[in-house]
Amino acid sequence: MKGVILAAGKGSRLYPVTRIVPKPILPMANRLTLEYAFDRLKEMGIHDICIVVGENEPQMRAALGEGKQFDVHLSYVKQEEPKGLAHAVGFAEEFINREPFVLYLGDSVYGDGFDKYAARFTESGCANLNIVQEVEDPSRFGVANVDGERIVRLVEKPKNPESNLAMAGMYFFGPQLWDVLPTLQPSWRGEYEITDAIQALIDKGETVLAGVYNGVWFDTGTLDSYLETSSYLVDGGTLIDSSATVHGHIGEKVVIGAGAVLECDLIEDSVILPGANVKVSGIIRHAIIGGPVSSGGDVISEILHGDYTEIP
Fold this sequence. Notes:
By secondary structure, the chain is an alpha/beta fold. It contains 9 helices and 25 strands.
């Protein structure tokens, strides 16, 4: 089985940091975000991985190379325009060569592995197995309506959900996917949706299964979710690289990267990126900071990266 990671997005909800560091290689607990994806794929015996990149391609290639340092072999394909997940995965068709594969959304971090789901996908012979998770508010998600283990219909953000099983960002596909991708039409968003591709498989009578995932699952694309994931990865404690220099009190849920220099009264629930030079006359709380940043007052609920950016 092969792996495809979708990593072409701009990460705009984490601007300005992701204007400097592409979201897929933004450090999380002092590891690149995509390293967590590599871990989960390797647990399933997958080492041959294609990354779908966008305008971030030069930085991605420079940071990841051929993948040897991560014990994987990386290939790259470029999605020139952001036209949806189904559009993005289409660029990996030659790489996949009609073999079974796992599709992984590059923003996602999972607490537990997927070995049993990979085994179920293989033994079932199904066209597609989707990782789903029970959620309290399914109206915020793409939802799988099921009959036993089988998905009978997908509904995007339903007003009156018939199920509480949300699509959770990982998909197992057989070669049948390539037969339905050319039939897709753009959605109301103007994008080619992976949920439409899966529904097309269902409509063709293919077997599409749900794998209910009980582990923790994070989408790391916002300030709140990024810091929540960071806290989870350090068990609510601290992770300070040995090469960082800190002058100030360090509270809980703090990560400080390699070579960073930090001066503040107190820092808590925050991430200081590698190489940052931060001087704050006050408290840093619930923030991501990279590059040279200075402030004459507190920095609270901020995303900052810049040349001694002054905070009003």
